[in-house]
Design goal:
The structure holds three protein chains of three kinds. Helices cover 65% and strands 2% of the residues of chain B. By secondary structure, chain B is an all-alpha fold. The N and C termini of chain B lie close together (9 Å). The chains are: A alpha+beta, B mainly alpha, C mainly alpha. The structure holds heme-A (2 copies), dinuclear copper ion and copper (II) ion.
Chain lengths: 307, 554, 232
């Protein structure tokens, strides 16, 4: 198995090992009995008829229904526990937020500093939070060393949270079939030893390309969002964007939602879907492009979340 | 049968093969036996076609850079390989080909409930297959057999995908009609004295299968129909650009395609139950548990489809629920496995070809099923999903288990179908070759998968070269085994000696009909005894086969 | 049934297929068959209803809006028509069992006619929509007139996107149902011809029974479609 490079890899391998041994034992039993019986009871001169033996035995059969049942339930328990640990938000530390875009047939990673690159850069020991999007078909970001995989589905955002623990470079592959060069849709993940070296990297040659945050900022002005949304917290026609990211938003229908990527996407593209409490449902659906949308979100994140 | 003489004497009945000559008498027949044989021909061809594709795949994977065929060709090849093997070989394989032939015979009936419907479903199947072959002509499809949008419904995919969707749709209807026919037959045409728990287990398996066919296949039909129209009219159901949801398609697809894997395995398990009992000369152990576990698998199998979508972004708790049910569905299979083993205990095991295939089944299905647990468990599926581990898993169950059981059944019923005995030596050697070749071909794929090699890769990292080369070698051994088997069977038509009514000493009804049976199956309606009661059966001679001694309970 | 050597004796009833022992057995079998067929039909539509449900859940405001394009009065009328036709279909089975030839042809004819009415009404609905650009999916471009015909409250709302998908589902589901109605009409024609020939009677009425069952299914499906699309 590939070297374990993420906080979750350890658990995953433990679960794998557990299932492996359960299976091995079951398999040895089956093969053993098969071979044994064939050897012992093969029909040969002097053994043309079977020996008398019962044609069913409920207690016995319940036993070999019960044991596998117990085993699979244990497997389920162990594995699900580990898995929930994988998908639950990485607690503590402000995560390193990277916006990942899959497209035929390459990956693009927008890092917080505004630096976009064809490779993923992370910091060892600092939690990472990847937001995956796709511009064409379904791709799947696969990091074997991190024991992680997540589809990038067009039309919605998916998320991946983990903490790299080893420094170095690791392969990234596309695991969901996406056409001609699916097998060449590769990239690398670079894990920096510390924040300093990460920053050093991200300063190199920024500027020429618009950073994602700037794209977002521009869009807000250009598409007239700021007519109704302030940035300083004063509510206008619409709620202010200040401290919006990550807060619990109360809705007109009494329910409330946490403001995350998909909520924001919906609020922009289908404003009527979830109306914020205390506001009129007057926001027009605004056709932001995928990248502008990502930018808008990155920008809100850069504004920071409510205290 | 009262006396040996009566059994040995060539029955004076006209075989269903001779009655009625000419092509038309076959293509328009409503005789379930002839329909079964025609199915057999088609699916053997499908297996061959799919196999050839597979061999090209394997050869291309000989070198990490590929290069034998272009990426696009490779993608088309594994798509067609998968689609042909699944929709045209495994799913119809055992039920439609062997099932059609055996089911009425095992019931002592003259035919299935709706003979005309049976013919109709054969023709639908033929049409569906034709549509698939047509996709080859128009340049193939490269969507993967799972047909995931948006990729599969992009304009660039061309005509091929449309034909393929039609093919699936039509073949689906054939499958529904067959299932309908089988359930009606088993319900209403059991002979006097055959209660539900006197059914041969093969029929229980077919019954459970038919339930799945009827309930799941319509959903597949509507799904591909929707895909078809989405592609043409941009309905906005599956394609994000028109406001659709691609994951919805995945739910629909797997709602059929997971139960479909049990459409494949259940009949295979049925064959195993028959063969293991007959060749251990012992009644099957725990009849009721085996029968009921078939039903259990059929029912639970409907609620686990989400285990194919753990990383697709479906909701967290949905994944947990699907994982839980997936674990549950493994248990009935475990029960069956142990009951089969118990059947051999203290038996008198005869190692004829069908039995050798069945022994291979035990080992391979064990591995294939257990690796399913790695995939059903959430934490381990995340890294393993869409790697060669999955590829290896489903080849273990579909090739190693289903194809093996199919071969077992084919050899087991061959004398009844053709009236000829195949050559045991050829049969035994082929069985061994298949077992060995298979493991050499697919065990390395587990290793590649665990090491992180994704599936559907025309080119791969040099690190995986060894596994792939070994796998390719194994694939050729496997192919050789199957070809030998095919040759052995076909040769028997010309050279094989005449088969007696009951060459294996089995107790189920089909063996009391002539080999091959008459157009009406039985000279007189047979009396049903218990299908696994071997008392009083004794072998007159290899040539004359087995008969029940006078006076012994029928 | 092409009679094969060793087939039925002279005394066999005319419509007894030779692989059955008795008409009862044959009837039981065909009823089982038709019920299984209905089961798979239900699943067939079930998939579409699921698609509907998913979309409804994700875009409720869209449905609230789009539903005003449909005229519930026409829908209600059709519901009435179908229910009546179901009744007369049921009645025809009874006639067949009692061997009332004239009653049988009459009831079958009535059912056929009502099915026809249903399709005519549907035709008007469809053509009106297609004229006004209320088509499916991406090609959906409502004409100004229809938009004006909407109630005030609705017109105030911003036009939700993907309105077309509502009509996608509408055309798919009512269309598939319509095809079933057509098939049903064909079956009734066939039955009428045989009834005229006097094929049916107390001994043999399987086909009538089967077709009637099928027709009840078609009716039931509509009874689900009507509220889901017209009333929401
Ligand atoms: C014949 C077909 C067949 C059968 C029978 C099975 C059987 C099972 N399958 Fe498999 N499966 C496929 C065909 C099949 N599968 C295919 C085609 C795919 C891939 C499709 C694609 O993506 O292209 C797939 C993919 C697949 C996945 C998705 C993987 C992924 O894409 O990430 C999963 C996940 O849960 C899974 C699980 C299982 C399980 C738990 C069983 C269980 O039913 C197995 C039960 C059997 C046993 C457990 C072994 C026998 C019992 C013993 C040896 C006794 C000891 C037992 C215990 C201790 C429990 N299968
Ligand atoms: C029942 C189904 C089935 C069967 C039998 C097989 C059989 C084989 N499969 Fe395949 N396979 C699939 C179902 C099946 N497969 C599916 C569903 C996929 C996924 C596709 C996708 O990703 O979309 C797949 C994908 C797949 C891949 C992965 C491709 C990729 O992801 O890049 C590979 C690679 O090695 C492979 C190899 C093989 C090989 C070597 C065989 C060998 O076992 C073939 C050996 C057989 C022959 C050589 C033919 C010989 C037969 C005869 C001569 C006729 C004899 C007739 C009688 C005896 C009656 N298969
Ligand atoms: Cu991108 Cu595969
Ligand atoms: Cu599955």
């Amino acid at each position: 198995m590939p070297e374990r490079a993420s906080s979750v890899a350890g658990q995953v391998d433990r679960v794998f090992g557990f299932i492996f041994w359960v299976s091995l034992v079951s398999l040895v039993i089956i093969l053993g009995l098969t071979v044994l019986f064939v050897a012992r009871y093969r029909a040969r001169p002097g053994r043309t008829q079977p020996e008398p033996s019962p044609s069913h035995h409920n207690r016995l059969e319940l036993v070999w229904s019960g044991i596998p049942l117990a085993l699979v339930m244990i497997i389920f328990g162990v594995s699900t526990a580990a898995w929930l640990g994988m998908v639950e938000p990485a607690t503590g530390g402000d995560p390193l937020r990277v916006h990942v875009t899959g497209r035929k047939w390459s990956w693009w990673f927008d890092h917080p500093s505004g630096k976009g690159a064809p490779e993923l850069h992370l910091v060892a020991g600092r939690p990472a939070e990847l937001t995956l999007a796709s511009t064409d078909v379904i791709h799947s970001l696969y990091l074997p060393n991190f024991r992680l995989k997540q589809d990038a589905v067009p039309g919605r955002f998916t998320r991946m949270r983990f903490t790299p623990i080893l420094t170095g470079t690791f392969p990234i592959l596309c695991a969901e079939y996406c056409g001609t060069d699916h097998s060449r849709m590769l990239a690398t993940a670079v894990v920096h030893p510390d924040q300093a070296s990460f920053d050093a990297w991200s300063r190199q040659g920024t500027g020429e390309a618009l950073s994602l945050v700037e794209v977002g900022k521009k869009a807000l002005a250009a598409k007239g969002c700021l007519a109704c949304h302030s940035l300083d917290g004063t509510p206008r026609v619409g709620p202010s964007f200040k401290g919006l990211w990550g807060r619990e938003e109360k809705l007109a229908d009494g329910t409330s939602v946490r403001v995350d990527e998909n909520y924001l996407r919906e609020s922009v593209l289908k404003p009527g879907a979830k109306v914020v409490a205390g506001f009129q449902n007057v926001m027009p659906p605004v056709p932001l492009e995928e990248r502008e949308l990502q930018g808008f979100i990155a920008y809100l994140q850069s504004l920071g979340s409510a205290p | 049968m009262s006396t040996d003489a009566a059994a040995v004497a060539e029955p004076a009945v006209e075989s269903y093969l001779r009655g009625g000559r000419g092509l038309r008498s076959w293509l328009m027949t409503i005789d379930h036996k002839r329909i079964g044989l025609m199915y057999l021909g088609l699916i053997a061809f499908a297996l061959f076609l799919g196999g050839v594709f597979a061999m090209v795949l394997r050869m291309n994977l000989w070198r990490p850079a590929g290069g034998l065929v272009s990426n696009d060709t490779y993608n088309k090849l594994f798509t067609l390989h998968g689609a042909v093997m699944v929709f045209l070989f495994v799913i119809p394989g055992i039920p439609a080909a062997l099932g059609n032939f055996v089911l009425p015979l095992q019931l002592g009936a003259k035919d299935v409930a709706f003979p005309r419907v049976n013919l109709l479903s054969f023709w639908l199947f033929a049409l569906g297959s034709a549509l698939f072959v047509a996709t080859l002509v128009v340049g193939g499809v490269d969507t993967g057999w799972t047909l995931y949008p948006p990729y599969s419904l992009e304009g660039a995919r061309g005509l091929g995908i449309l034909l393929a969707l039609c093919g699936v749709f039509v073949a689906g209807f054939s499958s529904i009609l067959t299932g309908l026919n089988f359930i009606a037959t088993i319900h209403t045409m059991r002979p006097p004295g055959m209660g539900w728990f006197d059914l041969p287990l093969f029929l229980w398996a077919l019954y459970a299968t038919a339930i799945i066919q009827i309930v799941a296949t319509p959903v597949l039909g509507i799904t591909v129909a929707l895909g078809f129209m989405e592609r043409l009219f941009h309905l906005g159901l599956f394609m994000p650009e028109y406001g659709g949801d691609p994951v919805l398609f995945q739910h629909f697809f797997w709602f059929y395609s997971h139960p479909a894997v049990y459409i494949m395995i259940l009949p295979a398990m049925g064959i195993v139950s028959e063969v293991v009992s007959v060749f251990s000369r012992k009644p099957i152990f725990g009849y009721r548990f085996i029968a009921m576990s078939s039903i259990a698998i059929a029912v639970i199998g409907f609620f686990v489809w989400g285990h194919h979508m753990f990383v697709s972004g479906q909701s967290k708790w949905a994944s947990v629920a699907f994982s839980f049910l997936t674990m549950l569905v493994a248990v009935p299979s475990a029960i069956k496995t142990f009951n089969w083993l118990a059947t051999m205990y203290k038996g008198a095991i005869v190692l004829k070809t069908p039995m050798i295939y069945v022994l291979a089944f035990f080992a391979i299905f064990g591995v294939g099923g257990l690796t399913g647990l790695f995939l059903g468990s959430l934490a381990t599926d995340v890294p393993l999903h869409d790697t060669y581990f999955v590829v290896a898993h489903f080849h273990f169950v579909m090739v190693g288990a289903v194809l093996t059981a199919f071969m077992a059944g084919l050899h087991y019923w061959w004398p009844k179908m053709t009236g000829r005995m195949y050559s045991e030596t050829a049969g035994r050697i082929s069985a061994i070759l298949v077992l060995v070749g298979f493991n050499v071909a697919f065990i390395p794929q587990f290793l590649a998968g665990v090491a992180g090699m994704p599936r559907r890769y025309a080119t791969y990292a040099a690190a995986f070269q060894t596994q792939n080369r070994v796998s390719t070698v194994g694939a050729f051994v496997l192919a050789a085994g199957l070809l030998l088997a095919a040759w052995g069977l076909l040769a028997s038509l010309a050279r094989g000696r005449r088969a007696p009514r009951n060459p294996w000493g089995a107790a189920s009804l089909e063996w009391s009909a002539a080999s091959p049976p008459s157009a009406h199956n039985f000279e007189r309606t047979p009396v049903a005894g218990h299908p696994y009661d071997f008392t009083g059966l004794r072998q007159v001679s290899e040539e004359a086969g087995w008969v029940r001694a006078a006076g012994a309970a029928p | 049934m092409t009679s094969r050597p060793g087939g039925g004796e002279a005394a066999r009833p005319r419509f007894l297929a030779e692989h059955f022992e008795s008409l009862e057995a044959q009837l039981e079998t065909s009823t089982t068959g038709i019920w299984l067929f209905i089961a798979s039909e239900v699943l067939f539509f079930g998939a579409l209803f699921t698609a509907y449900g998913v979309w409804r859940a994700n875009h409720h405001q869209l449905f609230h809006y789009a539903q005003h394009f449909l005229d519930w009065r026409l829908g209600a009328l059709n519901t009435l028509v179908l229910i009546t036709s179901s009744l007369s279909a049921a009645w025809s089975v009874r006639c067949a069992q009692l061997g009332r030839k004239s009653g049988l042809t009459a009831t079958l004819g009535l059912t056929l006619a009502l099915a026809g009415v249903f399709l005519v009404v549907k035709y008007f609905e469809y053509s009106h929509k297609l004229h006004n650009g209320l088509t499916w999916g991406a090609s959906f471009h409502p004409s100004p007139e229809v938009l004006l015909s909407l109630p005030e409250a609705i017109r105030a709302l911003p036009v939700p996107e993907h309105l077309g998908t509502f009509f996608t589902l509408y055309y798919l589901m009512t269309g598939l149902h319509g095809i079933h109605v057509l098939v049903g009409m064909g079956l009734f024609l066939w039955l009428i011809r045989r009834a005229r020939r006097g094929d049916f009677g107390p001994g043999y009425y399987g086909p009538v029974d089967a077709v009637a069952l099928y027709w009840h299914l078609v009716d039931t499906i509509w009874i689900f479609l009507f509220p889901l699309f017209y009333l929401v």
